[in-house]
Amino acid sequence: MCRPDETEEGVIPEDDHLQYMLGCLSDEELEIAARTSYQYAKEGGNEEVRDKHAMAMARRYLKSKKNVDKALDYMKATIQFRSDMKIDRLRTVFDGKDLGHHQDEEKTPTSDDEDVDSNPNVDTEKFASQLESRLSSKKNFVMGYDKEGRATFHFIPRCTQHHDLEWTMLESIYTMERAIACSERRRGDGSINAMIDCAGLKQWAHTPPMNVGKYFLKTLRRHYIGHIQKIFILDAPLGFAWLWKILSPFVGTATRNKIVFLSGTDEKMSYLSGPQCYYEESEAAPWMLESGKKDRELDMQEYLYRTPFDRAFDDA
């Protein structure tokens, strides 16, 4: 595929850059790029529809990286990442399962467990059971939308039970993909907010090993370009400043600029529901806003087995 030519003014139109990026991808890569859209992955479509969704991914990467070659390199790396992580299987792992199928299985995955994701011979039921076990800690889930229809990825570190690189990544990516799918259904794009509730966080028990934290942040930075709108870190303890100093270089400047630290009832109320009004009371948990109405206890069986992947828990 030839590089696009400059105009007389020395400017290359964005559409030419995007067409060039798509032209550098194989049919298999285009399909994986298109399937970053859960809507396309679920419904499929002809080549024109495929290319439309692949171009949406290319546009996010070009907007972020400003340089077409750099954007293409990052896009290809993400396509490979999604293939390696078997994102399609991850998004559909609970589809068609009987309610409570895994309830009696108490095995919790550890670093010594069989490498489920990289071994194609491991039974999908075992994978679903182990992922459910991780998610059942209620540390990661999707609930509520901001006033513009962005889904909210809830992360509650105090609910951490086990630190393990593979499974920490899998439960986090499952939740990220689900939040993106919910936003896509509501607003047509996949931009989301992350809400991190640090109340009760104990560094020695709840913070992940450095390799886990760094790998997650690198994954967010490299493979979820253009999806994060805001990251709200609520009620962080004093000791969090030390952890943040170590991890922040791995976040990236653009993402760091989207992070907001809020502490205490008044500050959260003023920022989240004040003049900017990010959240209506009906879509906020009580730990986000004192008057928040999203107070149903998370029912993991309902969330995983009875709620479609592109719906948040307690979706209106």
UniProtKB/TrEMBL annotation:
Disordered: region residues: 98-121
A single MF term (Gene Ontology) = phosphatidylinositol transfer activity
Record's compositionally biased regions (Basic and acidic residues): 98-110
State a single Pfam family of this protein: CRAL_TRIO
Q: Which residues form the CRAL-TRIO domain?
A: 130-297
Organism superkingdom: Eukaryota
InterPro entries according to UniProt = CRAL-TRIO_dom, CRAL-TRIO_dom_sf, PI_Transfer_CRAL-TRIO
Q: What is this protein called?
A: CRAL TRIO domain protein
Species assigned in the record: Seminavis robusta
